[in-house]
Amino acid sequence: MFEMIREKLQGLGAEAWEMTETAQNRWEFYYIGHRLDQNRAVKVTGTEVKVYVKSEDGQFLGNAAQTISPTATEAEVDEILKKLVFQAGLVKNPYYTLTDVPVTVARKTDPVDVAAIARDCIEALAGVPETETQRINSYEIFVSEICRHTLNSNGVEYVCTYPSTELEVVVNAKKEGHEIELHRIYHSGTCDRERLAKDVARVMEFGADRLEAVPTPKLGKADVLFSTWDACRIYEYFADKMHADYVARKISDWEIGKPVAEDVKGDRVTVRVLPELPNSSMNMPVDREGSVVYERELIRDGVAAAYCGSRQFSQYLGLEKSSMVTNLEVEGGTLSEEEIRRGDYLEVVEFSDFQVDSMSGDIAGEIRLGYLHRGGEVTVVTGGSVSGSMNEAVKQMRFSKEREQYDDRLIPKVTLLAGLRITGAE
Predict the structure, then answer these.
(1) Cα-flanking dihedrals φ and ψ of residue 325, to 5°?
(2) Based on the domain organization, do 194 and 79 belong to the same domain?
(3) Is there a contact between 420 and 391 (Cβ–Cβ < 8 Å)?
(4) Same structural domain for residues 73 and 104?
(5) Do both 197 and 55 map to the same domain?
(6) Residues 132-147: pLDDT tens digits?
(7) Is residue 197 predicted with pLDDT exceeding 50?
(8) 3-class DSSP state of 337
(9) Distance CA 96, CA 291 (A)
(10) Any residues with CB less than 8 A from the CB of 249 and at least 6 apart, and which?
(11) In angstroms, rounded to a whole number, what is the distance separating the alpha carbons of residues 251 and 389?
């Protein structure tokens, strides 16, 4: 199928094209408690084709894309390609070109040991301590070997193979006839057994504490501590602001060489893009457009250092060697976790939803479970909401020297945002 589409694209007469064949070999396991309910092996292949058409005056370039099934007939492929050319001709983006830099970065293409990764996940969960009142209800494991073969009309071609793992875990806690259920989804490349077991055990403790929670009081403004994967949203805000797409479209006004915030009294953020991060599901030498991923600092000590983004918007900004963000690393702060945890604050570990709007900087989240630290005492709370603005919070934010990894994000273990608004549930 790949070769047949390739031949047809070469004779299509479009300005440019790119195609990516993705083959996925996935093993799936479904457990009830620790009893295997069912399992299956799935093999899926699809080819995404993107066609580019230049306007008659050469000032604009439109594109259209579609994934073609491996069962499509030759006549169906012809029809799809004709449709893509027509659709691309209707789009009027300022002209740009596809990458023409040959991919010379070495990359392992050895088969992924899907069975070993799945075994690590199963054994990690089997080792989580359980009691009569706290237990693993069920879990599902999806471990994939993904092989991506990309080619464009400039002759840039590469093949890379990498693992991708998704694990869904449901835990239960009960007390005196009351029961609560918490759900977690974990993404990674391979399996970090120790960290997985530790986090699931922590979630079971959250479940037990949730049964003891009282309504969140009306706190007005308070410092809020983030110690779970929700903190990734905070640091993605910084990366988004340095995205070429945002800058070119005037969504972000952050400029290279200028501080991302004035009058900063807290820790200054350093954010970098990495082509490789241990155990990440995004370890690949190139982004999805074929641009080589180089290590680079987006922000250094609170000062904008480099933009990163798609080929299209990077060209609009005149950037060289730019790429999309794959793995993201944030340096630790000046204080330890223990030091940051001193004083009064609200630590929220479960949100029904938590968002940091990259355009406006607005922070919003509904509290499902939190720990209110006041005067040396800790109260478990639930309900209410957190809101504020990163535009202000960045000036006093603190984050720990210690760090924690969440798939393709390596961030400080705890992050403290000062003066957020807390709507109580009392």
Answers:
(1) -75, 130
(2) yes
(3) no
(4) yes
(5) yes
(6) 999 999 999 999 999 9
(7) yes
(8) helix
(9) 14
(10) 313
(11) 16
